[in-house]
Design goal:
This protein has 587 residues and is an alpha/beta fold. It contains 14 helices and 26 strands.
Length: 587
């Protein structure tokens, strides 16, 4: 069971963890002596927190997360304790999936009392859906084990927690330094009738059976083995929830590509039939499909599947130096997907410490929580937090820093218009030409048709297109060549970064092609590096229009969708003739 320790700095988180490890006999004697000896040598007072530091160094090797973890065993179960030095790191790790906490221990200093951070952390636990929480009122030795002090903190903090819907399992007065009420009840606080910390931890119920939940694996990477003459591709990632077996039908979101699991491939491990939550793995598929890192792999027959769209409602916890404002572009990371997003509206803002609310505020300041509607620049797959925690959470990056974390509460009803809907409206509103299609056909003698030439950069596509244009024109076709650049610097002059708005550039290019085809032309177009999903989008926009796809040079397409494959180093003239022959035969 993973337990995270949170609380204001210096309230004693590390000491508490050190104590817990020590008092449960989880620290080897020689190690303890070693640390004590080192302290003596350096004339430094021994601190239980040093145990944690020593273990951190030892255990964190090879772990690339910012929080340290320690393991220990009670009579009841195994624990992983996660020390969250700051709530930003904690949030970052929780949201990125680097750390998953089943329960939390929140530490409050008895002398200093409840700090703003104590409340913010409580709020965050509520937002992250961590339901099992223990509150330790620490440093009871400093307040002479006073029941009154403890009760004061307990009453005040209970009230706060009830407002944020957290029902703590226990409030425990402890002294991490003295070891009171940690692994065993302490005689010094006989007035405390509740459990020791360890007893309370042991009474946590086991994490819900994540293997039984809907299967979700954000795709991290796709490996190819072409070097070894093997054309297999492996889809790699970490199973966030649920389980799958070889033979299961799967579907990727948002591309909706389907295939079947041929085998589960684990490095250095015997073949596995099934795999469950928390494992990093890779899959070979029965039918190769084109998917990209960032998609979510799901089981096709599952009842609960992710949403796809570009709009959703979310609760955002903001930690950025600059406020979160509507219409500014931020990076958004969800699972393994990265995209750009804007806040469409700030619906309600709450101060995470005072819980003061405002519906009039238009921006979200540091340490505030807000209910917002978010719009991403491209449709993405996501879950609501109640469906799946790992793919229902995201982080927002402002510049280069993680500035906020959020959970998706609702898939917005007007969830961003999909391409199909946009095309539907376009066709409905289309102003038709006065000349009938049949008349135009009779005049040109050829059906309008698109020949789209793609391939990697520097494959001579433009020269091929021009040659083809000349050949077809000679044959009497109303041939017209257009390259994507003609659109980028004209129709697209209002959008800048080509990479970020690649989809939008392509969409507009396709709309221009659609107009040229409507005019009855034989359109020859070139665009580099088109992939399966680009081509699908083009086909959606060009609805029912004739379409030939030629790929020049290396055929990097995973699916067999190219009509014409032109090998590398073929003479320009021959290439154009091959394509022309295809066009002629497709009449
Ligand atoms: P963290 O920042 O929350 O991890 O806090 P630390 O565990 O580093 O503790 C901060 C300081 O409080 C250290 O100097 C500890 O020795 C001290 N401290 C922690 N627990 C207790 C306690 O129960 N009693 C007393 N008197 N001091 C404590």
């Amino acid at each position: 069971m993973n337990i995270v320790f949170v609380g204001h700095v210096d309230h004693g988180k590390s000491t508490l963890i050190g104590r817990l490890l020590h008092d449960t006999g989880s620290i080897p004697k020689d190690k303890l002596e070693d640390i004590k000896e080192r302290c003596r040598k350096n004339s430094k007072a021994f601190e239980y927190a040093f145990l944690l530091d020593a273990l951190k160094d030892e255990q964190s090797q090879g772990i690339t997360i910012d929080t340290a973890r320690c393991h220990f065993k009670s009579d009841k179960r195994d624990y992983i304790l996660i020390d969250a030095p700051g709530h930003i790191d904690f949030l970052k790790n929780m949201v990125s999936g680097a750390a998953r906490a089943d329960a939390a221990i929140l530490v409050i200093d008895a002398l200093e009392g409840i700090q703003e951070n104590s409340r913010r952390h409580g709020y965050m636990l509520s937002m992250l859906g961590i339901k099992q929480v223990i509150i330790c009122v620490n440093k009871m030795d400093i307040v002479r084990y006073s029941k009154k002090v403890f009760d004061g903190i307990k009453n005040e903090y209970s009230l706060f927690l009830s407002k944020v819907n957290v029902k703590p399992k226990a409030f425990i007065p402890v002294s991490a330094r003295e070891g009171s009420n940690i692994a065993a009840r302490s005689g010094k606080m006989a007035w405390h009738k509740g459990p020791s910390l360890l007893q309370a931890m042991d009474s946590f119920s086991e994490a819900k059976k994540l293997d039984k939940r809907p299967f979700r694996m954000p795709v991290q990477d796709i490996y190819r083995f072409t070097d070894l003459g093997d054309d297999r591709r492996l889809i790699a990632g970490r199973v966030e929830e649920g389980s799958v077996s070889a033979g299961d039908e799967i579907i990727f979101y948002p591309s909706l590509k389907r295939s079947k699991i041929r085998s589960i491939e684990m490095f250095n491990s015997p073949e596995m039939k099934s795999i469950g939550t928390g494992r990093s793995t890779s899959f070979a598929l029965s039918k190769e499909v084109y998917v990209q890192p960032g998609e979510i792999m799901c089981k096709a027959k599952e009842k609960t599947l992710p949403y796809t769209g570009s709009t959703f409602d979310a609760n955002i916890f903001w930690m950025g130096k600059e406020p979160l404002v509507p219409n500014k572009e931020y990076k958004l990371k969800l699972g393994t997907a990265k995209t750009y997003a804007k806040v469409r509206s700030v619906n309600r803002v709450i101060d995470a410490s005072s819980l003061k609310e405002s519906v009039a505020k238009m921006q979200v300041d540091r340490h505030e929580v807000a209910e917002c509607t978010i719009e991403t620049i491209r449709p993405m797959a996501y879950d609501t937090i109640s469906q799946c925690e790992a793919t229902g959470r995201f982080v927002i990056v402002d510049g280069y820093e993680i500035a906020g974390g959020g959970i998706i509460t609702k898939a917005a009803k007007n969830g961003g218009m999909g391409l199909k809907e946009k095309v539907g409206i376009r066709d409905y509103k289309w102003v038709r030409s006065g000349i009938k299609f049949s008349k135009r056909l009779a005049k040109y003698g050829h059906k309008p048709q698109l020949i789209l030439i793609t391939g990697k950069r520097n494959e001579n596509k433009i020269r091929i297109a021009r040659k083809l244009e000349a050949l077809l024109s000679k044959k009497g076709y109303p041939a017209y060549y257009i390259g994507i650049r003609s659109v980028i610097y004209g129709v697209d002059s209002d959008i800048r970064s080509a990479e970020r708005y690649r989809d939008e550039h392509l969409r507009r290019f396709a709309e221009v092609l659609n107009i040229l085809l409507d005019a009855g032309l034989t359109v020859i177009a070139t665009a580099s590096d088109l992939h399966e999903d680009d081509i699908n989008d083009l086909k959606t926009i060009l609805k029912n229009k004739e379409f030939l796809l030629a790929i020049v040079g290396e055929n990097y397409l995973v699916e067999k969708i190219a009509d014409i494959e032109i090998p590398k180093y073929m003479a320009l003239k021959d290439v154009a003739i091959i394509i022309k022959d295809h066009v002629l035969s497709s009449r």
